[in-house]
Design brief:
252 residues, alpha+beta, Chorismate lyase, two-stranded antiparallel sheet, 28% strand
């Protein structure tokens, strides 16, 4: 039976939608070569039965992988594996929503602190909000899956109305803005990204194994919803000696 390759090994976690976890499981099977490039996945109904989820959940999971270009679907043919994933250890790039999905999927963000904060001074200016506006704040180190040393440190500022999106989640393995979209029912219209050199704050430096004040890179993203509303502001700190950013410029 072709679908036995996807035998039910899932132990569903709370706080992460099931279709996301199914998508991660299928991606893992693809990465391991269980489903190689050019082969077809079992039919949706068969996958649903094997994994113990609804067909709708399987369809949503496949939709996620199709969005990233990992799978394609043709009527009368089936769902085909299109390409392998890039290794995020060899480069850092996120030139699209799909790139951010993949980056989040291959890493783990461990929340070590959370609470309510007011955006003031330089933080408010960088976020583009009025001083004193309150946000739900989370922070912690990010690891490549399976590693025991973090490669960057993250801070997240969420609209307080979205607090329950992350309630109960201590380790995040998906793109947070996708959970925000699921909660609000609206698509993030724009992601504004900035990169600048900074001196690492003491707490960040400690997590990254650097001296306080060491040179680092700060990557920030503003996730904008309808009506130019800021839904999420995310910051990543990297050691200056290990940060690399790759992009491609195409002529027109």
């Amino acid at each position: 039976m072709a679908g036995q390759a996807a035998e039910k090994v899932l132990s569903f976690e709370t706080g992460t939608p099931r279709y996301i976890q199914v998508a991660q499981h299928l991606q893992k099977l693809i990465d391991e070569g269980t489903y190689s490039v050019g082969t077809l996945l079992p039919p949706e109904a068969e996958l649903a039965e094997i994994l113990g989820v609804s067909r709708h959940t399987v369809r949503q999971a496949i939709g996620q992988l199709r969005t990233r270009g990992v799978l394609s679907a043709r009527k009368g043919v089936g769902t085909r594996v299109e390409k392998p994933e890039d290794d995020w250890r060899s480069r850092f790039t996120a030139n699209s929503r799909g790139g951010l999905f993949d980056f989040a999927r291959t890493t783990e963000l461990h929340f070590k602190s959370r609470g309510t904060v007011e955006a003031r001074g330089q933080v408010a200016a960088e976020m583009g909000v009025r001083p004193g506006r309150k946000f739900h704040y989370l922070a912690g180190p990010r690891y490549y899956a399976g590693d025991d040393k973090p490669f960057c440190y993250n801070e997240v500022y969420l609209d307080p109305r979205l607090k329950d999106v992350v309630d109960g989640i201590d380790i995040l393995r998906v793109a947070l803005f996708m959970l925000v979209e699921n909660k609000t029912g609206e698509r993030v219209k724009e992601i504004q990204q900035d990169i600048r050199a900074v001196h690492l704050p003491a707490e960040v430096a400690g997590w990254l194994g650097r001296a306080p004040g060491a040179l680092g890179m700060k990557l920030s993203r503003r996730y904008i919803g309808s009506g130019s509303r800021l839904l999420e502001y995310a910051v990543q700190y990297y050691p200056g000696d290990s940060f690399a950013y790759h992009t491609v410029l195409s002529s027109t």
